[in-house]
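Entry 12.
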Amino acid sequence: MLRTLFAAPILWGALLATPASADPFYDAALCKPPYTTDTATALYEAAEKLAKPDGSMLGAYVYKLPHALGQDGFRSSEVIFAGTAVGVLIEGLQADALAERYRLTKERSTLLGTATKGYSRALPQDQQPQPDLGIVSIVARESPSLPGKTLLMCEFVLKADQEALDRYEKSRTP
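Predicted 3D structure (tokens):
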């Protein structure tokens, strides 16, 4: 609880200290800090100051940053906000490499066919901001809707949504 209360002010301090910096966006994609509404709002407001959003992707806003960012050999110049997730669009089809670097495991679901390749890793229990409501995970996905890019994001999935997806996937298995 205290971590959630202090995460937004710490993030705000980092963003205000370096208004043109994109590093907090990459960190956020790696769930540093873990996803909360407060941290996502702070990042969203910072992105609004750096670029205009492209809302052409259904259910998501993509911000083309004025400068590239990256870490561990991966590069991006786009930040994405989608539902209860914040992330970056990595240049190239990098899901396998991201999975290896960040210790992600193959996802069971293709998310209703929207992902051609997906990996994830739930944060440890002590880093889950609201474990009674859902799970926060680091995710890497490739999709035909993101040609030449890989989505790296921190995603909060409600327990009810995960249960519904699990039921759907189970109904499709012979």
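Annotation: The first helix runs from residue 2 to 17. Confidence is low (pLDDT under 50) at residues 1-21.
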